[in-house]
From TrEMBL:
Gene3D superfamilies: Electron Transport, Fmn-binding Protein, Chain A (2.30.110.10). The keyword Transmembrane helix does not apply. Keywords: Oxidoreductase. Pfam families: Flavin_Reduct. Coiled coil: none annotated. GO terms for molecular function: FMN binding; riboflavin reductase (NADPH) activity. This is NADH:FMN oxidoreductase. The keyword Isomerase does not apply. Residues 10-140 form the Flavin reductase like domain. SUPFAM superfamilies: FMN-binding split barrel. PANTHER family: FLAVIN REDUCTASE, FMN REDUCTASE (NADH) RUTF.
Length: 142
């Protein structure tokens, strides 16, 4: 999940995402409160959700760490600017959503909840099988 504020980029791995409205289309995402990604989203008010497929498993670990930003690349993966928000999107993944922040819920928890309105979506590879968390090395419980 990347964000961008002017020429500053941040990205991170998120596990807790849910659709929460049909009209307008919205998603709710949990982001680590102390993360650079959270700070960047708070300033820019935009983010992208890049939906990973099974073939994208190698992308998981690099995005669970501090991001390495190079021109046109995040953690070694080429990105483009999203057509609606300018936020980084990866065309190598099955789908992506561009979102504008509508609300942020803070509490004593270690994650904030970010409500984002989906302003653009692309289904790049509808045949791809989705990657689910339990197929990775990262597990939050259960």
């Amino acid at each position: 999940m990347p964000s961008r504020q002017d020429d500053y980029y941040a990205a991170g791995l998120v596990s807790w995402v849910t659709q929460c409205s049909f009209d307008p289309p919205m998603v709710l995402v949990a982001v680590q409160a102390s993360s650079d990604l959270n700070e960047t989203i708070a300033k820019s008010r935009v983010f992208a959700l890049n939906i990973l497929g099974k073939a994208d498993l190698p992308m998981v670990s690099p995005f669970a760490k501090e991001s390495v930003i190079e021109p046109g690349r995040i953690n070694g993966y080429a990105f483009e600017e999203g057509p609606k928000t300018g936020v980084p999107v990866f065309r190598s993944v099955p789908a992506f959503l561009e979102c504008r922040v509508k609300e942020v819920i803070h509490s004593e928890a270690d994650h904030v909840l970010i409500l984002g309105e989906v302003v653009h979506a692309e289904d790049i590879n509808p045949e791809a099988e989705p990657l689910v968390e339990w197929e990775t090395i990262y597990h939050y419980g259960g």
